[in-house]
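Hi everyone,

Forwarding the result from last night's run.
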Amino acid sequence: MVKKIKENYPVFIIFFITFLLFLTNYKKNTFLVGWDNLFPEFDILTNLKRSIFGVWQEYRGLGLLDGMAHTANLFHTIFIFLLKFFFPLNMIRYLSIFFFYFLGGISFYFLISKLIKDKKSAFLSALFYLLNIGTIQMFFAPLEVFAFHFFSLPLITLITINLFEKPSKKNRLFLILIFLLTSPQFFVPTIFIVFSVFFILFLFFCSWQKNNFKLGILIFFVFLITNSFWLLPYFYGLKYNSQIVPNTKINQFSSEEIFFRNKAYGDFLNVINFKGFMLSTIESDILNNKNIYFMDVWRKHSFSISYQIIFYFFLILGFLGVYKIIKTKDKKLYSFIFAYFFSFLFLANNTFLFTQINDLIRNKLPVLGEVFRIPFTKFITLFIFSFSIFLAGCLKLFLKKVSNNKFLFILLTTFILYLGIPAFKGGFFSNILKLKIPKDYFDAFDYLQKQDENQRIALIPTPNFWNWETRSWGHRGSGFLWYGIKQPILLRAFDPWSFYNEQFYNELSYALNNFDTPTFNQVLDKYQVKYLLLDGYMINSTSPKPINYEKIINFLEKNPLLKKEARWKKIYLFSTIKNRSWVKVLRNPAKIYPPFLFTKKDSIFEKYGNYFVDKETPDVIYPFSSFFSEKTQNDLPFTIENSQEYFILRPKQKIVIPKDYQLKIPSIFNDYLIPVKVSLKEEKT
């Protein structure tokens, strides 16, 4: 036993470091909740079902085609299912994140041991891979996608090398298993692009070195096949979602701003120092009622002279490692050089020449520009992974050339630990994400578990259009409610994937903010909403004016079509008296054209009730269904020409008006007459 420990001491040290980080970062009775997060543990069976049948996301608002790759979470959900047997609910996410982190460290250690045959340099480079500031930024506000990606890079690389060295049936089956188990890294499909580019490069150089291109092609083909269970459904919906995602209101308002926040750290020095936008992100510390730098402790640490001296020392060693690879023509490491510069291309979007390349990509391929609007989170792990391999090669030479390398080994270990010292003081995760979720939510989950799962729920209030929620108990992020509720639920978090979900809240918010009971009930009827879940912990993050819950509750209680179903302290559940059925027989519904979108009030539904869009034989044509889109000018359904004497409005969509139709112009104002001239021009064919 002692002999095995001595032989594998790096593994035990990495385990001890991970365990120490858990002890110093776990906060008793809290959940790691906020920013973007996954909580399948809130209802394992429901979330497992959603992962298996994830092509159509029925539970997300009004239902939508998967705009990400939720099916890829299948094996993560199974893993959480196993953890739930042994650990309390609040601890599961802490443990799973640290487990993936540990896997990344030991996988990298064994990979380097395989590549350069030196345990000390393998351990040091693995430690650097774990504790550098770039890695910390990806775990500070953790999302499981990036934790999986962190360990998948070294693990798949290692297993693939083993298969090239010994192409046995056992190694092939093991690689297939690893492909499946690491598929949750592709929950954000842009990671698939990044990983695939690296993997193709890696397979090419492995095939070249071993003179076995047939095996390389076979491995990549198997990689695609094992990921096809999420990849094919994603590609099926890509054409549809590529038109929606960039044009939803939240993305129209935020995409450019997010990109330029990333670009602020796209200069050469910040990139090679692994620094990204999170270091300058200002976040609201709700419990202490103040704004703070989200990574303030890491900002201060990384600006210290001692940190910079040590970091630049390792940076120089890493670049010397690149020089060594090129000089010795070490083909097996060429792919990592290409991967490093591929990552640098997108990270350095504020560096001469690379800026122009990135701008060209964004202008010529706007869809690609949208998916890579946050290049740091997509490329930094591959960037660090490649650099840490360069560092390992140089460390091996460095240790060999020093006579007392035992002392140097301890000194270098101390230096790397110092680079990550805030993590051991509770700064591995953000403290404002370690929160106690009020029991009210779990009581609501338990109650709704007993109700009909085919009834739609809507969360209120929605104080603004942003898709992140802010709550008085400290929470700020995309939300978590749908993980504990089996019914479909309307949330602003789903707006970026559906125009219809966005439009629901345009209408509901307008009615609720104006306390307009008839319009409010009309919206509930139109969208078939059975329950209203009022979260009294919600606060308006964009205004100092508090939400008037007393007035909202009074408005709901006086509504004759609503009844108070239940209450759990600050959480209320109202239900509509009218039974809601998703299958509705429409008798002679109105046929309307063009379709109605992007306004605060659906005047068509108000007049005709349920209707459907019919371009060929509409009963009613609305050339101008609205003069306000709630979005950008490009979203207006008409063009406008302005002169000194008149305005000309022209519908954007081609409208064929049969001769027997009547033109009705409703009154615009009660007190004034506005001269209007109407003309209809028939297109020549």
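The longest strand covers residues 529-535.

Cheers,
N.
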